[in-house]
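User: Sequence in, structure out. Go.
Assistant: Echoing your sequence, followed by the structure tokens.
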Amino acid sequence: MTSDTLTVRIDHDWKKKLEELASKENETKSDLIRKVLIDYIRKEEEKEEIKRVIAKEYAKGKISFEELIRIIGYEDARKIAFFVHTVEESFEKGLTTKDSS
């Protein structure tokens, strides 16, 4: 696997804390940052997958809007509900247009 270099600027106090933690964990600063960054990215990817699964369940009518809000938060729930409503409305218009032809 190839690797690239990434430069990150952080406040001096945070750098000191990073150095202390790396020393305590017997890791290099680079290794510690890499592990934390990879873990963060994986968690974000998992969150997105959960949102996709929950959105499908909402679209199928298996969970309510209130449950959707509780699981993923209001803003994301609102976006999903808008998208589902728009798709349903478009589908209904398509059926109506086809029936009247």
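User: And one key feature?
Assistant: The CA atoms of residues 94 and 100 lie 10 Å apart.
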